């Protein structure tokens, strides 16, 4: 693969502190804001770009447009009152918040969720992963002008939302995985309807492959662009598909298995070229893995058994002093909850570790430099970032 | 985890170890030993991934707990380093040169908790809050409800339930 090598002689010199010596009055540079309202931005954030010609020489990310103070709000709520608000931290894939929070509370409270609940939790997480990838594929194609892909993936995402609705009663924020278990079992006929949905997604993914991944323009715009050097993965905390596209098999489902993943047969998807195209392809193939996992879960899960452990009176539920960290592999990488309790009926501290925190700030600011303005949107989307994870 | 702790304790004076799980432990460390310990863990013990850096406000004890959570993916283990610093004039040495991504965490901690990290890039730049003049909002003494009541107005015609009373009525109608 031939990577783009910019002519550094055209670039501003560095000051002693390492920042660039940019004289905006020279007429050589231009400040350009991309976002917060911009079709080439993922979610509510903005990029402050300094460009020289049509090439970015410096970038700063700005977040805070969707700050709702979740971590602070949880400090004034009982453990059960926190449960319905955690899912709102991430709109496209909210279930990891529910799982990580529930698992952290259970661990510190000494509670074990029933086995059947673990199977249903895994099912929900994989359904959410498929949905999140559908949004991503639409966004990635849209960032390069292929609007139709987003219409297709939104259609099949809507079918999966139907399955979510019949399982949990809600389409977006499910509030289904609570400390102690899950709210309900699978409704009658769910497996059959899920199979129809999965087949429709497979058909759509085949079309997406033909129209998006075999498209000459898409390849031309993405192959060799947005390269993440594997040496940057650990210093910048890169996880998930962004790391796997660079040839590093980072997948919490395999590295530190949780729920029922040890009982499921799958291999993490990897790529090697670490560019936008490879990251998109890793996610496309990951959808197929998740479809297979959903089928395995429905076939293997126990059909009867308890769904909830008996909890103490949740209005007077005090959890002993302690701290823990629970992680899971969401569609964007490592998602985790750091929970600290102090023996009272309220969490002392809840810290949400979303993969976008590292991907969308430090890593993005580094990757954008030397990129053509027209590729900024594609590059940003290729990191699959959700700003609400940054500003919990 | 206990073996690792014993090995580390030969080189560094460590505080108490809390083994939360087989693959997760927390160690209390004095701030002057943190940097050397982080470098040792990263370069020699395989803890190459900084999972998170955050603070816990123990206001009653007058301290902030800084938690540096590290991960060793190959050996499937996580280690949290707890550093206790004084709440008054809270300040801590930066580790952005050990993990570049730490600069983002430190910038957020400076804004939300008022903990300074001198020499960390852009640490005093607004991160999430712009034009914020109140005390750092994630400190325990910051009253979210009072701030909301003073800053925003209630929409007329909407019934507001006290969450605790409402849940009690819904979950335990018999008054358990």
From TrEMBL, chain B:
Limits of the NADH:ubiquinone oxidoreductase 30kDa subunit domain: 27-147
Domain of life: Bacteria
Gene Ontology molecular-function annotations: NADH dehydrogenase (ubiquinone) activity
Family statement drawn from the similarity comment of this UniProt entry: Belongs to the complex I 30 kDa subunit family.
PANTHER family documented for this protein: NADH DEHYDROGENASE [UBIQUINONE] IRON-SULFUR PROTEIN 3, MITOCHONDRIAL, NADH DEHYDROGENASE UBIQUINONE IRON-SULFUR PROTEIN 3
Official protein name in the record: NADH dehydrogenase
Species in which this protein is naturally found: Magnetovibrio blakemorei
Lineage: Bacteria, Pseudomonadati, Pseudomonadota, Alphaproteobacteria, Rhodospirillales
């Amino acid at each position: 693969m031939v990577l783009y090598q910019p002519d550094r002689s055209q670039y501003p010199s560095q000051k002693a502190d390492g920042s660039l010596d940019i004289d905006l009055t020279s007429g050589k540079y231009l400040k350009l804001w991309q976002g917060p309202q911009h079709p080439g931005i993922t979610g509510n954030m903005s990029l402050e770009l300094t460009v020289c010609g049509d090439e970015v020489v410096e970038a700063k990310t700005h977040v805070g447009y969707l700050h709702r103070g979740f971590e602070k709000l949880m400090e004034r709520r009982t453990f059960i009152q926190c449960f319905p608000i955690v899912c709102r931290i991430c709109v496209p894939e909210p279930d990891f918040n529910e799982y990580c929070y529930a698992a952290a509370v259970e661990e510190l409270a000494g509670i074990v969720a029933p086995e059947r609940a673990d199977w249903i939790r895994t099912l929900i997480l994989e359904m959410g992963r498929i949905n999140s990838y559908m949004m991503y594929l639409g966004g990635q194609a849209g960032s390069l002008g292929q609007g139709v892909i987003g219409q297709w993936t939104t259609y099949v995402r809507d079918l999966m939302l139907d399955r979510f609705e019949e399982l949990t009663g809600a389409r977006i924020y499910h509030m289904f995985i609570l400390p102690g278990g899950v709210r309900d079992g699978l409704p009658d006929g769910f497996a059959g309807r899920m199979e129809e949905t999965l087949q429709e997604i497979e058909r759509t993914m085949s079309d997406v492959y033909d129209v998006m991944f075999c498209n000459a323009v898409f390849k031309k715009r993405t192959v060799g662009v947005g390269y993440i050097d594997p040496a940057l993965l650990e210093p910048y905390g890169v996880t998930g598909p962004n790391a796997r596209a660079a040839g590093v098999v980072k997948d919490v489902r395999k590295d530190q298995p949780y729920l029922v993943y040890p009982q499921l047969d799958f291999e993490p998807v990897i790529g090697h070229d670490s560019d936008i195209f490879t990251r998109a392809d890793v996610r496309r193939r990951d959808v197929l893995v998740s479809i297979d996992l959903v089928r395995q879960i429905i076939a293997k899960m126990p059909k009867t058994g308890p769904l909830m452990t008996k909890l103490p009176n949740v209005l007077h539920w005090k959890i002993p002093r302690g701290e823990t960290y629970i992680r899971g592999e969401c569609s964007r990488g490592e998602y985790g909850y750091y929970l600290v309790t102090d023996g009272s009926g309220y969490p002392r501290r809840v810290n949400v570790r979303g993969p976008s925190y590292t991907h969308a700030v430090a890593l993005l600011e580094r990757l954008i430099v030397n990129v053509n303005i027209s590729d900024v949107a594609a590059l940003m989307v290729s990191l699959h970032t959700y700003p609400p994870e940054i500003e919990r | 985890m206990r073996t690792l702790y014993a090995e580390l304790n030969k080189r560094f004076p460590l505080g108490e170890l809390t083994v939360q799980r087989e693959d997760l432990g927390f160690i209390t460390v004095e701030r002057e030993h943190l940097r050397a310990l982080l470098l040792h863990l990263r370069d020699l013990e395989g803890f190459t991934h900084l999972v998170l850096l955050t603070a816990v406000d123990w206001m009653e004890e007058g301290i902030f707990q800084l938690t540096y959570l590290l991960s060793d993916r190959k050996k499937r283990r996580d280690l949290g380093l707890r550093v206790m610093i004084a709440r008054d004039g809270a300040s801590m040495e930066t580790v952005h040169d050990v993990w570049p991504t730490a600069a983002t965490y430190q910038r957020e901690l400076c804004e939300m908790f008022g903990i300074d990290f001198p020499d960390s890039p852009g640490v005093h730049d607004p991160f999430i809050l712009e034009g914020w003049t109140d005390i750092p909002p994630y400190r325990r003494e910051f009253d979210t409800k009072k701030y909301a009541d003073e800053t925003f107005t209630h929409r007329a015609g909407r019934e507001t339930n006290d969450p605790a009373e409402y849940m009690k009525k819904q979950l335990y109608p018999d008054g358990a």
